[in-house]
Amino acid sequence: MEKNITSTTVPTQILLNITAAVNATEKPFSVFDGCETLMEGVLFDLTLQCFNTIVGIPANLLVIAILIKNRKEPSTSDIFLGCLAAMDAYFGIVLPLSLLNLYHWHSKGVWSTIKFSYGVKDTSGPLFLSCICLDRFMAVVFPVAFGQLKDIKYRLSLSLLVFCLTFAYSAAKTVGGLPNFEKVFTGEILATFTWMIMCNGTILWSLKKSPGVGKDEMHPMKKRAFKIVLSILCIIIFNYLPPVALFPFEDHYTPDVFRCYVQPVGFAFLNISSTIQPLIYLSRLEKVPFLPESCVKKYCSCLSAENNKSPPAPNPPE
């Protein structure tokens, strides 16, 4: 009798497990993924991503068009800028998909596609910015070696390596379930942040060593390089410092707080760089092609007024 009870209990337990699995599968998928009661951080990230769709996509497409137009007289960093703009424009498409999946589709398959896009943004932005910093670092600090490495094949090879790393990371992020996978991004962002700060700090220090009493006596090419590097440094600090400051202290937060608040807010600052980067690039141009002159003047009126002011007095000698 006891043997019969045992033989019927095991199949019943298996049936209950299968039923529970089916019910779990049929449950509508939520993009918030356990943060249904702590949605503020995710909504903050989605709000900032609105700028990536409304402003970032057109700005990045305009950057790509300008780079193609100037391909006969390219800068050595143009290939990195073009790849970065293409990845940022691709990432801008994520918001409409996220909103549709959030309120209508509830599809786990679509969410996997969105996670892949997030992986692309997590990796491509820091790595391509690091390539731009490396290019500028070599040009300013090691000009002789830079002259020997100006062939485009070196930059194409480096870009291909970045794409391979980006897609490998994105695929792993999409699959999920890898132990301590979040620490891969934390290590990457810390390494690239440190590298970019070191490169840009060295470049600015080298450019400031020009002959004369102040920056106003720099060579025009050095002035231009100084402004470019300074703008990149501002992007790095504003967009990458929050995740660098927050993510290494994951163990100090509860899992729900880190997943629902700390991560979305840190990624929000990282994601908005898809709009800030092309706008800063366009603001450095003397003339923006493909746009009406009146529109450009209206947009740059503040900058023009600042530039038309009398130059400041030179800095005192150090």
Describe the structure in your own words:
Helix 3 packs antiparallel against helix 5 (108-141), helix 5 (108-141) packs antiparallel against helix 7 and helix 9 runs antiparallel to helix 11. The longest helix is centred in the middle third of the chain and has 34 residues, at 108-141. This protein has 13 helices and no strands. Helix content is 76%, strand content 0%. The chain has a single domain, classed as Up-down Bundle (Rhopdopsin 7-helix transmembrane proteins). It has helices spanning 2-26, 40-69, 78-92, 94-105, 108-141, 143-148, 152-175, 182-208, 220-246, 255-271, 273-283, 293-299, 301-307. By secondary structure, the protein is mainly α. Residues 1-27 and 303-318 have low confidence and may be disordered.
Tag the structure with descriptive keywords.
mainly alpha, Rhopdopsin 7-helix transmembrane proteins, disordered N terminus, disordered C terminus
Cα-atom radius of gyration: 25 Å
List the domain count as a whole number.
1
Number of helices: 13
Give the CATH architecture. Answer: Up-down Bundle
Can you give the helix content as a percent range?
A: over 70%
What is the 3D shape?
globular
Q: Show unreliable segments.
A: 1-27, 303-318
What is the name of the CATH class?
A: Mainly Alpha
What distance separates the N and C termini?
Answer: 98 Å
What portion of the residues fall into strands of 2 or more residues?
under 5%
Pattern of helices and strands: HHHHHHHHHHHHH
The major pleated sheet works out as:
none
Remind me, CATH topology? Rhopdopsin 7-helix transmembrane proteins
CATH homologous superfamily title? Rhodopsin 7-helix transmembrane proteins
Number of strands: 0
